[in-house]
Amino acid sequence: MPTADVPQASGEETEDTGDEAMWEKNSPPTSPSFRRRQLSNGPPQRSRPTSSFAHRLSSETREHRSTSRPLSSNQLGKQSTGSHPVVQRTRSLTRPLSATKRIITNHSKETSNVKSEREEELTKRTLSALSDMRIKFPGKTDEEADTVLDAIEGNWKYHKPRIASYWLVKLDSIKRRKVIDIVRMNIRALLQRVWHLNDVDNLALYRIFCRVFNRLLWSHGQGLWNCFSTSQCSWETIFSKSTDVISPMEMSCCRRIVQLCRQCLLIVYQFAAETKNAVAPEPVKTRTYPGNEPPKYTTWNNGNGAIAQRMVRAGHPLGQAQQP
Question: Which pTM value belongs to this model?
Fold first, then answer.
């Protein structure tokens, strides 16, 4: 049976082909053979790990995740019952956000409570110091000043129109403010001493007092004058119509300030009246001489039925004139 002769490659040709492939493989990138081989093989592909390597990598990843995840109480109980000793993981130092917020809230509440207690205590001291405050009368003691105030209030019907004219008419806005500033400056010094502050402008209690002072100067001093009437709560409307809520102790401080302003006005009025009486000139006394006396008339009957009248002066010779 005829068979076709198939030429077989000799060993020499095989060795030559291998040397050529090795030369092309080791050829530099700039050589023509390297470029030809790169074009024939297509774009370079990223090498992928084998299946065994991928399986080993996934198992290590799962094991790492399982060890990094915190153990539950059931897992801890199962491991503790086993033969091998279990090392329990320490609790993390980081706390949840809710616990941190709760701690901050509790701390802020404690701080606000301590601050409110301190402010209440200082307000109580302020009220005690206001009760002991007195408006000084120049040249008089506190007892004598109290006597003057009692005398004015006892004879209020006589002094009321005069004080109204002095405060509302005679004094202008600048002088009325100066009267109120007498009390304001004393209150400011008192707060600096009690609260241990150099600047009390930002103090909540002082801002409340400033609102009271401004109310007393309202309508050209009508706010303070209304406090002398029977209804002495007209200034309290500034707090009833406002959203700010003040404590009863702060309201007591405001009432004491209004009382001090009333006393200050009465003392200023009495001091001005006494100063005016002391400076007023005495009336000039004139002496009366005989020649300066008013004329006198003398009448008599002249015998003819007519009445004669003659003007005579005292001490004048004609003054001793007799009827003819």
Answer: 0.56
